[in-house]
Structure formats: C-alpha cells, structure tokens
Specification:
Strand 3 (21-24) and strand 4 (29-32) form a beta hairpin. This protein is 41% helix and 20% strand. It has 2 helices and 7 strands. The longest helix has 34 residues, at 33-66. The chain is rod-shaped, with a radius of gyration of 39 Å. Bound molecules: zinc ion (ZN) (2 copies).
Amino acid sequence: MIGPVKVKCKRCGREFKSDEFTLDPVYKMMVCRECVRERRNEEFKAKKSQQKEVSKIAQETQIKKEKPAGWDAEDAEIERAYKAKQQTALPDVERIDNQRVKYKCKKCKYEFVFNVLTRVPGRCPYCGAEISGV
Ligand SMILES: [Zn+2]
Ligand SMILES: [Zn+2]
C-alpha cells in the first residue's frame, strides 16, 4: 500500500496531497489550499477594516457638523486670551484718563503724554519716532 503522495507547500512549508495544490493568481505559484484560504481571509478582513475606517471618518465629520457652537466658543476664548496678552504686552503705556496715556518712546525712552483720540502728538517730540501700540 502506497499512501497518497504528499507535497510540501513552497509558501507555508506544510505538507498536503498534490491534488490540494492550486496555482494562485496572487502568489503566482503553486500553493496549498490552506494558503489560498488564509489569503482570502486576509483580503476579507482588510476590506472590512477599510469599510470601518471610512464609516468612522464619516461619523466624525458628522459630529463636527453637529457642534458648531462649541467650536465658536473655543475660538472666542482663544481670541480673548490673545487680546489680553496683547494688552499686557504694552508696558510703555500708562493710562491717565479716558483719552490720554503716558507714553514712553520705544526708541529713545522719552516719556510724554499722548492723546489716543486726537493722536497728538503724531510722533515722539524728542526723536520723531512713530508712536505704536496705542
Ligand atoms: Zn501553503
Ligand atoms: Zn523718541
């Protein structure tokens, strides 16, 4: 009695009967039926996870569209913080009343009173540098 001839699969190294081998179009060689089954499983899983990924992205964009108010509030908060920071970044200006400030020239450090409403004087009376930040 001679048993069925077993052939070693070149891909996975497992032994199968020679009639269980097929020429796989993806591997481009003779592989056992197990290899073919595994490949099909992998392809199926890959397709499924791809679909999952797509629907996840669709869901996320949906959520963003549904909550514009939250984004606006966040933007306003950032803008408020930014403005507050800008104000504190003006140490050379000291308010006298609602239209005059004590201004220190950024170039020559000369201190003078500047009217923010009439914008007078237009330039530093000492060195002629432009007044900025007020
Ligand atoms: Zn195999
Ligand atoms: Zn000056």
